[in-house]
Amino acid sequence: MPDMTTNQNVQIRSAFPKCVRIDSKPHLFCPGCGHPEVLKALGFAIDELGLQAKTAFGIDIGCSLLAWDYFNMDTVETHHGRTIPTMVGFKRANPDAVAIAYVGDGGAYAIGLSHLMNAAVRDEKIFVIVVNNAVYAMTGGQEAPTTLPGMKVSTAPSGADEHYMKAPEMIRNVNPTAFVARGITSVQPALKMLMKDALKFYLDGKGFVFVEVLSQCPLNWKTMDKPQETFDFLEKTLAKAYPVKRY
Questions:
Q1: Which domains does the chain have, with CATH numbers?
Q2: pTM exceeds cut of 0.85
Q3: Of the chain's two ends, which shows fewer C-beta atoms within 10 Å, N or C?
Q4: Mind listing the pLDDT tens digit for each residue in 161-201?
């Protein structure tokens, strides 16, 4: 028998030729990567709040750049580390827009750290999301500002040094009125709620919004075929060093 649902869909699209139907499609991230989970939570939050038409989505160079074709909304890719000032400029030129900067921990806390901290100090009305997987993921797993002490990475085969950066805590110190929080990919309902609450704070015009999300990177953690080890490291090691909470 013919698929009546398919036939009905074809008839509907023929009746409304100007309508564009966009299906879901596979993402381009590595198997097991946490970026799709961060983006899924953000996407549901944007949809549920009806913000798609007024949202501008800025993405950095790195794994985050693979989000350029993930959402059906206005998107801009910037030079590495320059996503935050780009979205600050966009927001100033378009005060009614929802300006989101989506950045990895390398782009936010290394080359882009001065932009991040100055935007926080100035209380810029943008929403910054930083994905923290403790490495420079796209370029080979080098040591990042978030790499934990002793963690073996490509540029520190004997183990990373003892210093690592806790950005939400730093931002809370320089801006006591900002929305500051840290989520984790493995608890999707809570992550989506965190994104919605951050967007509501943003829509109320209360100031700078910053959310860091702890995310897995099986490729560079060398746990591609060991999902239990992946999530043990995410939830027991990374989350111990970086507490999941609202500041």
A1: 30-246 (3.40.50.970)
A2: yes
A3: N
A4: 888 999 999 999 999 999 999 999 999 999 999 999 999 99
